[in-house]
Amino acid sequence: MSGQTDIKNELHSLRDYLRWGMSEFGRAGLFFGHGSDNAYDEALVLLSHALSMPIDSPVDMLDARLTGAEKDEVIALFKRRVEERLPAAYLTKEAWFAGLSFYVDERVLVPRSPIAELIEKGFEPWLGGIQLPRILDLCTGSGCIGIACAYAFEEAIVDLADISQDACNVAAINIARHELNHRVNVLQSDVFSGLAGERYQLIVSNPPYVDEEDLADMPEEYRREPVLGLTAGRDGLSITRRILLEAANFLSDDGLLVVEVGNSCVALDEAFPDVPFTWLEFERGGHGVFVMSKSQLVEYAACFESIQDSD
């Protein structure tokens, strides 16, 4: 980046710093995929945070001039984004999911699942209008999926479960942030190991699913996220296999399982060729999410039991 004194002398308005940030991000070859997909939106997020302004402020505000202290704050934030390759959400400590704001830091992945679209639609037509007294968000991370479900299903009790105590701590912050302590709980659990005897009408999971090849090819920004939340063995399916094998024991008879496996969807189809996975399509993009009823899990239990983990 150019000298800070020169920058401050030459740039004065929000528009100046927005344009300059975009150029710096482009020159640095940053990758965008943690809430924004382009340099403009990324720079706007960081600029708005540095100035404590709503991101949807009137466009006329772009012509407002910054104080010297504000210039220092913006430059420092842009500099960290470029030099440390930290996703913007880790710098602002905020990410948006299903229209809701969540606290995030380096202990959890930055929310970006297409499951948000399913939540906004009430998981229809897949739920078929069944009542949802209890919901489980398995491998919850920040808790965004389960908390968004709590908003969508206002009478439901929601459990958030994760193997990582760090992730559970972040999820607890978000439960309190959304004032949902009365019906959203967080539990430390290695998949289902800490949930003995529980039954749910809906289990939603965005587990680790990145395979070894994809992990090696990931941009630097993804390497700033916790590896525990990303990787799942050689083919990305070590956690998903456990979910498929055990989920029926934790679902009600009319229950539904929803799991995201991303690019590992091909490997999953190859691992279980006799299982007719229902892969969902999304209007806003995203892939690798399947739905499966309890009856299907029971029907294909022998398939899930016969396939050993390939790791």
Brief sketch in words of this structure:
It is built from 13 helices and nine strands. The chain is an alpha/beta fold and 311 residues long.
CATH architecture of the largest domain: 3-Layer(aba) Sandwich
How many DSSP H or I helices? 13
β-strand percent reads 5-15%
Mean pLDDT: 94
Number of strands: 9
Regions with little confidence, pLDDT below 50 for 5+ residues:
none
| Highest-level CATH class of the largest domain | Alpha Beta
Largest sheet: 7 strands, mixed
Distance between the termini: 44 Å
Helicity level: 25-40%
Describe the structure.
With 311 residues, the chain is α/β, with parallel strands linked by helices. The chain has 2 domains: 4-91, Helicase, Ruva Protein, domain 3 (Orthogonal Bundle); 95-306, Rossmann fold (3-Layer(aba) Sandwich), CATH 3.40.50.150. Helix content is 38%, strand content 14%. The protein contains 13 helices and 9 strands. The chain has helices at 4-10, 14-28, 39-50, 68-84, 88-92, 115-120, 144-152, 165-177, 212-217, 238-246, 265-271, 294-299, 301-306, and strands at residues 95-97, 100-102, 134-138, 157-162, 184-188, 200-205, 251-260, 278-279, 289-293. The strands form 2 sheets. Strands 5-4-3-6-7-9-8 form a 7-stranded mixed sheet. It has a two-stranded antiparallel sheet with strand order 1-2. Strand 1 (95-97) and strand 2 (100-102) form a beta hairpin. Helix 2 (14-28) runs parallel beside helix 4.
